[in-house]
Amino acid sequence: MRIKPGIWLITLLIFLFSGEAYGQSKSLNGYTSEQAAAQYELESRFDGLIQAGNLRDWLKRLAARPQHLGSPYRKDNAEFILSLFQKWGFDARIETFYVYFPTPKVRKLEMVAPTSFHAKLTAPPVEGDPVTAMQEEQLPSYNAYSIDGDVTGELVYANQGLHQDYAELERRGIDVQGKIVIVRYGGGYRGIKPKVAAEKGAIGCLIYSDPRDSGYGQGDVYPRGSFMPPDGVQRGSVLDITLYPGDPLTPFVGATLQAERIDPRDAPTLSRIPVFPLSYADAQPLLEAMTGPVAPPDWRGALPITYHLGPGEAEVHLKLEFDWKLTPAYNVIAKMEGSERPDEWIIRGNHSDGWVAGAADPLSGLIVLMEEARVMSELTRSGWRPNRTLVFCAWDAEEPGIIGSTEWVETHAAELKEKAAVYINTDSNGRGFLWGAGSPCLEEFFNQVARDVVDPQTGVSVAERAWASRAMRTGSAERSPIRLSALGSGSDFASFLQHLGVISLNVGYGGENRGGIGHSIYDTFPYYVRFGDPAFEYGVALAKTTGRIALRLANADILPFEFKDFVNRLSQFIKEIRELWERMRTETEQQNQLIAQKVFALAQDPKLSFVSPDRLNPVPILDFSPIEEAIFRMEESIRAYEEARIAFVQSGSSLSLEEKLRLDRILYKSERALTRAEGLPTRPWFKHFIYAPGSYAGYGVKTFPGLREAIEKRKWTEARAQIPILAEVLEEFTTQVKRARELLESAVK
Amino acid sequence: MRIKPGIWLITLLIFLFSGEAYGQSKSLNGYTSEQAAAQYELESRFDGLIQAGNLRDWLKRLAARPQHLGSPYRKDNAEFILSLFQKWGFDARIETFYVYFPTPKVRKLEMVAPTSFHAKLTAPPVEGDPVTAMQEEQLPSYNAYSIDGDVTGELVYANQGLHQDYAELERRGIDVQGKIVIVRYGGGYRGIKPKVAAEKGAIGCLIYSDPRDSGYGQGDVYPRGSFMPPDGVQRGSVLDITLYPGDPLTPFVGATLQAERIDPRDAPTLSRIPVFPLSYADAQPLLEAMTGPVAPPDWRGALPITYHLGPGEAEVHLKLEFDWKLTPAYNVIAKMEGSERPDEWIIRGNHSDGWVAGAADPLSGLIVLMEEARVMSELTRSGWRPNRTLVFCAWDAEEPGIIGSTEWVETHAAELKEKAAVYINTDSNGRGFLWGAGSPCLEEFFNQVARDVVDPQTGVSVAERAWASRAMRTGSAERSPIRLSALGSGSDFASFLQHLGVISLNVGYGGENRGGIGHSIYDTFPYYVRFGDPAFEYGVALAKTTGRIALRLANADILPFEFKDFVNRLSQFIKEIRELWERMRTETEQQNQLIAQKVFALAQDPKLSFVSPDRLNPVPILDFSPIEEAIFRMEESIRAYEEARIAFVQSGSSLSLEEKLRLDRILYKSERALTRAEGLPTRPWFKHFIYAPGSYAGYGVKTFPGLREAIEKRKWTEARAQIPILAEVLEEFTTQVKRARELLESAVK
Q1: pLDDT of A276 higher than 80
Q2: Chain A residue nearest residue B596, CA to CA
Q3: A79, A286, B66, B351: which has the highest count of C-beta atoms within 10 A?
Q4: With an 8 Å Cβ cutoff, are B590 and A469 in contact?
Q5: CA of A612: which chain B residue's CA is closest?
């Protein structure tokens, strides 16, 4: 069946060439104006059906007990969620994986010198907040995937435990070999801290929540305020998710019962040394007992002590034993089949497991996903069906290492590579401003959605409020669209984007629900309704946002992707890398001059034990032009594609369904073109060559990761080798764009 | 008598045109090479006679008891110092002034709501540090020149109590009218804090030492380390020294017994509201009891509490009564008459009064001055006499408000205007790096001195070590001279430079003797020999530095001033002001746009009480070209003067003593040309139009103060009026340079 091309391309082009990305115009990318009117009508009904009361009821129910991976209430919740999806008419089921998961048997931390102190390792309950008192059901505080261990050593304070922190210690002549490092939370994924500590020779790692970062230094503590009380502990995984996320024993394959598993002793993503999290009440006596040089100003926290670096008198004994078991993880997967293009999937996910109750993280996002699904099922009653298939996923085992989603992605990799058009992720949600991160081809589309959702507190669009927040920060009143930042890791989009190359988006509201109790026993329903989103109005706003995103993607005549933002972003990335390289050249040169002129020796206080750094090898010339030329050709190709679209529209031609399916597939597989089967040099699970979580950041992205990290690590041969590979990757993308252009050209009558 | 011109001008010119300002060359500005050789021989003998043991013995003796203005031991010390100067053959005497000085009768601070708390207001003694236990003789902690008062009010925390802090409070809708503000030390002269608080309508002001700034947040506290213990209090004056320093009852005239005094009720430099200093032990319960919004991140200190802004439940009662008495201040003045040019004075000063013992502040500098004087007297035994007169001054009453030196300067103003060539100030001294501040015409000269003094810890010159310290900060290994920063206020140079226009210099070592106990009972001999300068090697280095400065200035054939650094500095100042004005234009425009677009309203959390700022009046065009043209003409004039010097040298001519005296006088009176009799617009005591302490900084300098402050205060008419005045001032200076050139031209044979 040939349908009239209508004017969707024209509205698209108007949007494209007017530079409109934020404003009053009601055009919809991927829709004719007639289709847009119908879609608006649908969205209006969608909005009208959303009930804040559901969000509240579900949150209260789901967060009523501790519900971490493997807990009885986790299973109960999964079955509850399944029952709802089934009630709403979805093709829903629980897909179970069996993941290697440690829970504590022995947790002992004591100071053995200069005085004796036994860490309490428990946090007190709060009146009126019953989950905080369910200590039998709570997971005790620990870092999941720490290895077992029994170590005794002097303490060294290493700030946030990142590379630059050890460089600072080395400048002061402090070596952590054989020591136990104590570091504060913050600055990146906690799993990086024991990883670097082990590389530097430490035998143990303690991670504590400094009150400066999350406690009274930020605001009043719970229950008076929203920040971490003295005995609260941030639980959390230390799995090396930068090597691969998911079950540590089943990289590349789903952790089904039958899956082949590697020997736990060979699992590279477990920590190398025992690592354990502490409250600031437990950390204070240790830090206070330390001697050695005073910590640099930026390293000092808000405890009422002088922060010393050690090593010295303070010595601790850490003993950890875990129960390592294959534990069932329950993903709830619910499908609503598309009427016209059932083999194109719009996937919407949020995890469901918490570290304890997990009211904010993740349930505040999950309840929104559930309400979206419920309302869509309501819409089907009046005959509506999505063009494309909608898949709703309530992931389990995200907290221990993004496991539920990763195992599902690995299990269904072949099908997903064919069918997955977009993955839309949420996690926690709160009061405040809309933010988004994801593939740049969705940026214009995302801003059209933000334009059409009203902020519950101010009555302007959420796009306008997000702009106002940026304007306050930058001081510039110039209007600008919301920029999608690049995705690293830390939530369930990771496998979709980085293992498969699925166009992905991560979305939420926040900024006005500041708190510091994440991953503790205090992340509860009573807390959330005081400090998170009391009236669930931002839950409703998120449902309107991600619901619109899903609906528009599912119904669009042609998938509403724009590539010009991507090519701009690529130019920015390579510019950053060029600047990094130039800065390293300058700084190397400068540092070597300072060394040659004995500046370090002369400027240092001889009473302190500073060490003059070693001479650095010079930074060689790197020729980035193959990448820059590939970007240039991509830009040309995108321009030609846009011209072809104009010509196509002007010709009055139309596309058959088969052509639309082909065009859709070319468009959404463009992201696949950015992956390579062999993966990144040191971590083959990561297939995407444009984005990966930094090997020493964890959550934070590195763009052009193979090249950028090679430069950062001064591996010049590897950096040189990456350049032609990246150029090839970009050419693959350009080829996809060219195929889209050819399709349009051939369709011109 | 005509003397041979020799080659001093040639060496000077080589120095000038080689750009040498730091290096190995041993030329001396103002000296022929023969004279330089003799001078070097003299300096070598000078160095050889310095005894660290004297420094130690005198410090121990002078700091043995509390010795604040008006104390018995202060008088005893003055007489001791006098006796030494007399023993060394100086024409020495005590010059006494009678200054209006308050000491506490009633000091009461209590919290009256929400709970009751009585501030302790005493600091415990330290074993082995006897002065700390002499509580009968110590001045209790207080802020001198607070008015008497008895006030009760709610607390508001205003950070450092500066203008921008109140702007921040206003943005949050917090008004201090009728409230008592509590502020932390730091950010400028403490006297600014009650001044601004009173302007904003507060009824009282508490100033406390936050441990972040001076206590355990910086390092271990005394006696374990060098920082402020919990009960320690920084005493200090709150006299408005930006209006005029010195006795509050005798502006413009010396506070002799007979002087006419203004009514204390009319004295404009007393505080307007009662103000009182607190330890952090006494401040903590008050701050902890406060409610209201959480303080911005930069405002938070290191106490283990959430810093709230108030107002709210916390209410305090402050009662202060003082004994206001005319108190004798004993300046010791000692002269060594110049052999050839007795009416040209090189004045060397350091104050002698402390807040308690004052071991570091001021005695660590005073003992150096005394040793310089002793060694010079030794040198006279072998027949040496300075060319010019040397005047040594041990000032009293500096701590209460730079009073001793100011009264002396006001008393001898007429004579000093004629005779004072240079004033060389020191105050505290410590281990570390040489620094200097003062008139730019001394910069080259100062660097020649720094080149010739050896750093005791590294064996390189103190110039090289100071450069290494800068290189560490800037990352640049390029060699550069020590820059003399511009003088504001805060020590005894203030009246010399800013009231009379005497070329001034303030010098010291430091940076490796960090501590936080200034103005407390812990500034003692035992403290200083542990944390200040244990072996007095930097005391010796300072004696070699300031001794050389005095000797070279006293002996020079022609005063060694260079004006090109001054003109460069002026260009920098006007550039800064232009940038300030441009920034204000941009920011005003920007803020008004943000207001017009409702950004403040949209971006703020509606649950917090932010207030959208008012629209600002636009910043008008200001024409700085009259000043820029005056600078240009000055530059031309300096160049012509230098050409005249070359021509003079090439001509083989020579100067008579009378011509040298005339040239000297033109040179040192060049700084007088920068003053005007009417003084600055709002503060006629300040005569210098290039430098003044900022009206809301206190110590920190404002260059082109009349113009800069008018712009900062958005007083555009005043700013416009200042421009031609500044151009005139600069022309006066240019005229002086022209006179120097004419003198040289007329002396050519």
Answers
A1: yes
A2: A477
A3: B351
A4: no
A5: B472
CATH code at A564-747: 1.20.930.40
- What CATH number does the domain located at A33-98+327-455+485-555 have? 3.40.630.10
Of A304, A468, A590, the CB nearest to B475: A590
Are the CB atoms for B683 and B494 separated by under 8 Å?
no
DSSP A670-715: TTGGGB-TT-BTTBTT--BSSEEE-TTTSSSEEESHHHHHHHHTT-
C-beta atoms of A471 and B596 within 8 A? no
Buried b (16+ CB within 10 A) or exposed e, A226-235: bbbbbbbbbb
Neighbours of B83 (CB within 10 A): 12
In this complex, do B305 and A216 lie within 8 Å of one another by their Cβ atoms?
Answer: yes
Cβ distance B457 to A606 under 8 Å? yes
CATH no., domain A104-325: 3.50.30.30
Distance from CA of A288 to the nearest CA of B (A): 11
pLDDT at position A19: 38
Nearest C-alpha of chain A: how many angstroms from B518?
19
Residues of A in contact with B214 (CB under 8 A): none
How far is it, in rounded angstroms, from Cα A404 to Cα A391? 15
Checking if the pLDDT of B15 tops 70, the result is no
pTM: 0.94
Read off the pLDDT of residues B177-222 as tens digits, 9 standing for 90 and up: 999 999 999 999 999 999 999 999 999 999 999 999 999 999 999 9
Chain A CB contacts of B475 below 8 Å: 587, 590-591, 594
Provide CATH code, domain B103-325. 3.50.30.30
Q: Parallel, antiparallel, or unpaired: how do β-strands A180-184 and A149-157 relate?
A: parallel
Which tens digit of pLDDT belongs to each residue from A74-119? 999 999 999 999 999 999 999 999 999 999 999 999 999 999 999 9
Name the one residue in this structure whose structure tokens are 């009206």: B695
**Geometric angle at alpha carbon B185, from B181 and B190, rounded to 5°:** 80
The answer to whether the Cβ–Cβ distance between B304 and A211 falls below 8 Å is yes
Joined together, the tokens standing for residue B353 give 């009064």
Q: For residue A575, what pLDDT is reported?
A: 98
**Distance to chain B for A220, nearest Cα, Å:** 6
Q: Which residues of A touch B431 (CB under 8 A)?
A: 605
Residue type, B576: E
Per-residue model confidence (pLDDT) at position A8? 43
> CATH topology for B43-98+327-555?
Aminopeptidase (3.40.630)
* Mean of per-residue pLDDT scores for chain A: 95
| pLDDT at residue number B612 | 86
Cβ distance B598 to A471 less than 8 Å, yes or no, reads: no
A56: three-class secondary structure by DSSP: helix
Place of tokens 């005296």: B661
Model ipTM?
0.93
Compute the radius of gyration of chain A from its Cα atoms.
26
Give whole-number Cα distances, B298 to A330, A583, B163, in Å.
45, 30, 15
Instruction: Sketch the domain layout of chain A as residue ranges.
Output: 33-98+327-455+485-555, 104-325, 564-747
CB A110 within 8 A of CB A117: yes
| Beta-strand pair B180-184/B204-208 | parallel
pLDDT at A135 over 70: yes
Identify the residue among A216, A305, A306, A591 best suited for mutation to test binding to B, counting B beta carbons within 10 A and taking the highest: A306
CA A693 to chain B, closest CA, distance in angstroms equals 29
Tens-digit pLDDT profile for residues A181-227: 999 999 999 999 999 999 999 999 999 999 999 999 999 999 999 99
CB–CB contacts below 8 A, A to B: 114
Q: For residue B1, is pLDDT > 90?
A: no
Task: Kindly state the tokens that stand for B300.
Answer: 């938070």
